[in-house]
Design a protein that fits this description.
mainly alpha; globular
Length: 360
């Protein structure tokens, strides 16, 4: 438990104190954000704001996590390492995307093909490795079963191990792509994606700690009062480090933002969220806990689909937060209200998680 507090606290300090140093570095190099010409005109004033702040979030998370391990004498677990691998790997893909944008002064970075390839390579490696490394109870970090609050009876390995592995890789990469794109779409207003992510990852600290307190260490099969998560406390430490890093970063990312997280941060956070849902066996529950991300993705899908079918738009602009911006809402008002909605989704998800345990 000490590792949870230490990792979160140190990650927050690193992000809080390290972000202004990174801002100075980016300003000196003139690495600023390029603004879309078809977006809200109020965003034109943000042109040139330093981006790639996800570098700080990733760095603070890793330093916070390592500090928690070193200061408590804890050995790294396979689950934690794999979660951070996915986060960092997608962060590298996002960094390349951001770097191309700022170096060529355009709103498009990596081509869709190479972006998919980059995400796919990292996602496939993660998907294969999470089914390895069994512990003393023969539990691997993930399983081929689809999970809601815990593993369900829907097993992707119904036709054999090889087919199960292939189907799991497809399923895991769907989650990874969905969550990374969801956070990326949400990152459109100052502090919006950072604040929503902070609330969601904070919920996963609670989930990990609760699972750790209810883990059946002495049996091979979990019962209704315990969970089969391989390393729940270590995942809570990772979630705490990410939450702390987001707290520190939000100080500088809140309106008016001094720095943007960029694709470096949004893809990394999406990858981390996908990893936590898979490794804590809460894949479907994660869509409730991160419900605001889901709503924002749906607004984009609805807008595109309806326009292709009818030639008309449902919203003034997608994703959803831009619709309210063009409707005259202030940026800070939208962000705060979306934070509140995100908190309600988290409360609903955590409530369902706890209620299932109480029901037994």
């Amino acid at each position: 438990m000490r590792a949870v507090l230490i990792s979160g606290g140190i990650a927050m300090l690193v992000a809080l104190l390290g972000t202004p140093l990174f801002i100075r570095f980016l300003v000196k190099r003139q690495y600023g954000q390029f603004i879309r010409q078809d977006g809200p005109t109020a965003h034109f004033t943000k042109r040139g704001t330093p981006t790639m702040g996800g570098v700080v979030i990733i760095g603070a998370t890793l330093l916070g996590w390592l500090s928690g391990l070193v200061l408590t004498g804890t050995t790294p677990s396979a689950s934690a390492v794999l979660a951070l691998f996915l986060m960092t790997g997608l962060g590298v893909v996002g960094f390349l995307d951001d770097f191309i944008k700022i170096s060529r002064q355009r709103s498009l970075g990596l081509s869709p093909f190479w972006k998919i390839v980059g995400q796919g390579v990292v996602g496939v490696v993660f998907s294969v490795l999470v089914l390895q490394f069994p512990n003393a109870q023969f539990r691997t970090p993930a399983s081929t079963r689809i999970s809601f609050i815990r593993d369900t009876d829907i097993d992707l390995a119904f036709a054999g191990a090889t087919v199960g592995l292939l189907l799991f890789v497809i399923w895991a990469n769907f989650l990874i792509t969905a969550w990374s794109n969801a956070v990326n779409l949400t990152d459109g207003l100052d502090g919006l994606a950072t604040g929503v992510s902070l609330i969601v990852f904070g919920a996963y600290v609670l989930v990990g700690v609760w699972q750790f307190n209810q883990t059946c260490q002495s049996v091979l099969t979990a019962g209704p009062r315990c969970y089969e998560t391989r390393d729940p406390l270590d995942l809570a430490v990772v979630a705490a480090a990410i939450t702390g890093a987001l707290f520190g970063f939000l100080w500088w990312n809140a309106s008016p933002a001094k720095i943007f997280m960029g694709d470096t941060g949004s893809l990394a956070l999406g990858g981390a969220l996908a990893a936590l849902t898979i490794l804590t066996r809460t894949e479907i529950l994660g869509a409730i806990i991160g419900g605001l991300f889901v709503v924002i993705v749906l607004s984009d899908v609805i807008q595109i689909g309806f326009f292709k079918m009818t030639g008309k738009r449902v919203f003034k602009m997608a994703p959803l937060h831009h619709h309210f911006e063009l409707s005259g809402w202030g940026e800070v008002t939208i962000v705060i209200r979306f934070w509140i909605i995100a908190g309600l989704f988290v409360a609903l998800g955590v409530g369902i998680f706890y209620a299932e345990w109480v029901a037994g």
